[in-house]
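User: Hi! I'm a student and our assignment asks us to look at how structure tokens line up with a sequence. Could you show me two examples?

Assistant: Happy to help. In each example below, the sequence comes first and the structure tokens follow. Example one:
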Amino acid sequence: MMTAMVTIHTSPLPDVTIPEVPLTEYVMRCAADIPDRAAMVCGVTGRSYTFAELASHIRRFAGGLVGRGFGPGHTLALMAPNVPEYAIIFHGVATAGATVTTLNPTYTAEELRHQLQDSGATLMITVGDVLSVAQEAIEGTSVTEIYVIGDAEGAESFTALYGNEIDQVPVDVHEQVMVLPYSSGTTGLAKGVMLTHYNLVANLEQMSTTLTYDEGEVALAVLPFFHIYGMQVLMNGLLASGCTVISMPRFDLEGALRLIQDNKVTRFYAVPPMVLALAKHPLIDTFDLSSLQQVFSGAAPLGAELAAEAAARVDCEVVQGYGMTELSPVSHATPAGQGKPGSCGVTISNTECRIVDEEGNDQPVGGEGELWVRGPQVMKGYLNNDEATAATIDADGWLHTGDVARIDDDHHVYIVDRVKELIKYKGFQVPPAELEALLVTHPAVADVAVIGVLDEEAGELPKAFVVLKPGHEATETELRDFVAGHVAHYKQIRMVEFIDEIPKSASGKILRRFLRDQV
């Protein structure tokens, strides 16, 4: 019996040496050399921390945590928009040897409760705007205390936790889970992605051969720090490179353009809807964006024509990368000046890829199939879910991404289709299974299937195909409002179509491709 040949596509970039150090030591490596340079700046209020101040606050927060017995084996839940203090809390937890799980501040209490229960968090830090939701969400969880960034009635400031400055608590960088973001993976409900200090440091070092910065660069950070892209590529990656990070708590086009103009921002990390605005919105012509050197898009595929149109409009290159939460997150990125239309870049350093078709056959250059990735950035696994881990990472360490790709002769990778069921709405994951499980609890719904419908601005819009129970009635508005009462804004159903039967395979699996053909 012949064994199928394995075709491995390696990175065209040189390998890097990955430091075996805790994350914060790596991220704050420049602080001693540039102590007075602004590290984190709030784009709304202007409050800021120099690299020296940021390092001191991190060590004080870590000292307070350790002083109250919070360290390895403990998890802190952080739910906040992009503010400078996010880095203090995040790296304070890392320095204390503990784990932080990052939560979306637009989540409902029931969405939050699932993550709090699953992660086992015992301490929570949030902001005043969502304090009441957080207080509701901790019912039935292990969280016993909530603190806030800033001031809010009903909770103390997180600075009340400060103690004496301490150095890094010793950790096993290969085993200690530093951050626990939640991802739906290729299907199903959100799962805790266990990323170790080594995973995170490895990916930052791997990115150093593609995302390179000059002395004194300034970047706009509007992509959320609770999301792996904003967390690693923006907050951690920029700080590690000595860049100044201008944070925005929520995206506002006019506000973002003004910050780019006034702060002479050189890097703008975006998602496709933001690139669409750069290409087409009339406001672009009213601001001086000449400081921009690069717009980097991620989280969802960016069309070649849209990238070219935006690049011409703002007069700088617009490139993209590819990754997943499970990959810490980057596996592909575009080196400066090497962009190709529609490409998400080349495989980054110390990373291998395979392109595997539906029959399990490896594909050569030009062939299409599911993208498999192997490297030091591959997650440790899913928390409390060995079955999902085994379904995502095989015995040889290959992570199956769920995306269909091809590789060209220049090592550039193109994402051409999706195997996984996830919907990408403005770069955010929307798992159909979660919405389907919710909709079938409505008294009038017998069966349901949810798919993503292509949309120029959002990427994809969640659409529900609904089968009603005999003798029951429901309107589109009623079902949309029902969903809206239970999930965050970006997960909401945008369209409903009533049909007689959901197409399914003999095993009961929803045949979504037949529904897509009807759109």
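Example two works the same way, sequence first and then tokens:
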Amino acid sequence: MFKILVSDPLSEEGLNVLKEIKEFQVDCKADLKPEELKEIIRDYDALIVRSATKVTKDIIGAANNLKAIGRAGVGLDNVDLEAATQKGIIVMNTPAGNTISTAEHTFSMILALSRNIAQANASTKKGEWKRSKFMGVELYGKALGIAGFGRIGSEVAKRALTFGMKVLAFDPFLSKDVAEELGVEVVELKDLLERADYITVHTPLTEETKHMISTKEFAIMKKGVRIINCARGGIIDEIALAGAIKDGKVSGAAIDVFEKEPVPADSELLKLDNVVTTPHLGASTEEAQVNVAIEVAEIVRDALLGRGIRNAANYPCIEAEVCKFLDPYINLCEKMGKFCGQLVEGRFQEINIVYSGEISKYDTSPLTMSLVKGVLTPIMQETVNFINARSLAKGRGIRITEAKSSVEEEFVNLVQVEIKTDKEARKVCGTLSPNKKPRIVKMDNYYFELSPQGEIVLVQNRDVPGIIGALGTLFGNNGINIATMTFGRQSTGGMAVSLLNVDSAVSAEILDKVRKIDNILSVKVIRI
């Protein structure tokens, strides 16, 4: 008998999927306080949540029998993924369940913004009849810029094309060939900002996408542009947006998500007549709620009954007998993928992987899944997992090849990755240290030994005296502790790389100071 706790409200259709299994005991207990959940969680084999329940490290520590956590929705910010992984608990989400709902809400917001529907409705209900005040604009022939072309972004594009709009798409993982088949033009972000009449964002909220659209971005937009955000609060700088609207640069905005929710009553956006707002309704349709409930119930059911694991955020599907050997390599590959995904510039075209050594004797597909997941994660965040990574890459026109080599390499086991974009090709090699810790040992023609974790500062420089001292002094003067440093060079006095694991975040201002050091050619931060 498996005991399943549902700690947030779930539609009856989803509950029925579980209740029809005779091996399951399903308990629905909403609104549990953290201490109450911690007290009872030890008795359960699976936990199903939405966004209200916070599955903290403390609660996971008390979950002695827990095998699976199912999140009815996309985001996993309410689940301590690292704590669950360390305890061997599978965490699964439902990234596709609200796709249509959010896409439709986005397009509803575009229409409402274009025709002043909310404002006209409020005016008419006051007994007014001010037709001239609510003059609108047509969508036909206008350019819609979509930043983030995943499931939701592509569905928004389909609807825009039906209305006769021209669609401009910015997504580092979207190939031009795939976009052309959809009737969409792939552009860089700057081009999108300059050309679009409407701009809608559909990216996860990450350190890279926070305030992705702010003052300098508004400055290069068309006068009269309209802004839509039904993705995540914080992608658009709300203060800068309010200022751009007041200045007349932006004609209006439609906002479903906010940096702080519930949105503060004194928000400048709420005071502007040409801003349409809704209280985070993107996934709030009857169909979406049913879809995610059924999906989360099915993936938890199948995981408990041994029917396979889907939508796992922390677990590739591998046989138990090879798990012990491959587990460290799965970890290595995911970290290598994250490193490579942030290393390269340009639009991804190919990911070519070669496995050599003892690992080549095993089924390496879990390693490839892990590596591709790592590559996509910096941009796609929780929408990518071990199971869907290859599919998402394929849908964006990224070619993936994997091969096994019998050629004897410098290391007993080696994972070699080559990533090609429309701008460059880079190679990275990784292996395990004697204590099974992941190590990156080669990048292009540079040999070194890097622990791929935390904040990594990657510096390209000329191999001259004084570089190490200058970097150490600069970081020390700015309160940044260097945990480890590793170096590689092609020849004495030639080109070199310096890689620093640091204990705290490196700001853009400090990076600018690094660039000004003599003989330093480039610098970037990679976060694992």
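Here is something you could point out in your write-up. Residues 445-528 form a domain with the Alpha-Beta Plaits fold (CATH 3.30.70.260).
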